[in-house]
Amino acid sequence: MRIVSVPLGHRSYDIKVGPGLLTTLGTECTRLGLGRRCAVISDHLVAPHYAAAVRTSLERAGIESVLVTVDAGETAKSLKTVQSCYDQLAEHRLERQSFVIALGGGVVGDLTGFVAATYLRGIPFVQLPTTLLAQVDSSVGGKVGVNLKAGKNLVGAFHQPRLVLCDLNTIKTLPERELRAGLAEVIKYGIISDAVFFARLERDLPKLLRRDPKTLGEVVARCCEIKAEVVGQDENEGGLRAVLNFGHTLGHALEAISSYGKYLHGEAISIGQVAAAELSARLLGLPWNDAVRIRDLFARSGLPVAVKLTRAQRKRIFSAMQLDKKVSGGEIKFVLAKKIGTVEFGCRVPRSMIELALDFQVPAAK
Ligand code: NAD
Ligand code: GLY
Question: Residue 366: its pLDDT value, please?
Fold first, then answer.
């Protein structure tokens, strides 16, 4: 097992990465003194696989649990689902000494975290991420929230979990498309912070695609280390944390204009990161060869790297980008790369350049 700490003073917590960790949940919650009653929030595809094991582990530790199941998929990240969770928590008389467990992917994690942040003005929560994307990104760092029709994550809070348990065995049941979507966030860490890690991904991609446990464990832990370091320095995104949004400005807008249906989050930010690499080559001197390597790694991961938009869709993309949280003073700000492993945030990009990036495709490698 690997342990990564998120250094946030009295709100510090551990991310544990390894196979079979779900069964340790009860002991871990007791060690943290989280209380004797909890709700496990999961979705209807994840719960049948793992909820029983989770609840047995809690029961063995003398912790009573209730299971709350929500729909699977991005549309569950809504205020309507939040309301339904509040009602079920109240019905089961969860009080201040209770806690909540998020068992699922990023959707369940973001939703449950928001419920935990707001129910009774805030109760503790634990993350049990079951997708690659959630293990390397969304379960860490305390950003929780839900979507509005107008845009992604427009309602939310910062509420850190007390513990994150990344049980690598859960990745075994993850659908192929979801595994590939998770790779989009994995690759992001190489681009924003670690050129050696990026080169490792280029080499070890086949092992990741076949879910080799040793490679998965090392890669998940490295991503968590990078995220923990960034969040430890800038918890509330005063500045540096923005680097984690590489490719997300366009990615979030694509998700919003397709009503959170066409693209998975990982697929949308794959397109967004390739476009950001193209902008980086034009505006920040990212070597074109790096832009090609970036595009190729996403393509080899089976992720989309370009999008064809009608005029009307393009108009909607720009309105969606205007609503993104990365906009300040009406200006759309991008995270751009100087080279693989080094990025800058807060880069102003003229609309004409964004239009160009949407039309242009990074040239194929020779
Ligand atoms: P998801 O939660 O929708 O899960 C993907 C699908 O896989 C769902 O259908 C789910 O039921 C299923 N699934 C999950 N685990 C499974 C397993 N082990 N076996 C079988 N099926 C399983 O999607 P996701 O990609 O995990 O998360 C995407 C969300 O995360 C987006 O809403 C995105 O905005 C959010 N996100 C948040 C942060 C953050 O910092 N809070 C960071 C990145 C992404
Ligand atoms: N995924 C972006 C962040 O956690 O800040």
Answer: 44
As a whole-number percent, the residues of the chain with pLDDT over 90 amount to 82
Enumerate residues 6+ apart whose C-beta is below 8 A from 219.
136, 186, 201, 204, 208
CB–CB of 271/305 below 8 Å?
A: yes
Where does the chain show beta strands of DSSP type E?
Answer: 2-6, 13-18, 37-43, 64-70, 99-104, 125-129, 143-148, 151-158, 163-167, 327-328, 331-339, 342-348
Active site annotation includes 351? no
Pick the CATH number of 2-173 from 3.40.1410.10, 3.40.50.1580, 3.90.420.10, 3.40.50.1970: 3.40.50.1970
What pTM value is reported for the model? Answer: 0.95
CATH number of 191-357: 1.20.1090.10
Distance CA 38, CA 99 (A): 5
Q: Average pLDDT of 155-166?
A: 98
Q: Exactly one of 178, 245, 255, 295 is catalytic; name it.
A: 245
> Residue 229's pLDDT is what?
98
pLDDT of residue 211: 98
Instruction: Tell me the pLDDT tens digit for each residue of 51-109.
Output: 999 999 999 999 999 999 999 999 999 999 999 999 999 999 999 899 999 999 999 99
How far is residue 13's CA from residue 118's CA, in Å, rounded to a whole number? 20
Mention every residue, 6+ apart, whose C-beta is less than 8 A from residue 101.
25, 38, 39, 40, 41, 54, 65, 112, 125, 126, 128
Q: Tell me which residues have their CB closer than 6 angstroms to ligand 1.
A: 43, 45-46, 49, 72-74, 77, 104-108, 110, 130-131, 133-134, 137-138, 141, 143, 152-153, 170, 173-175, 178, 181, 265-266
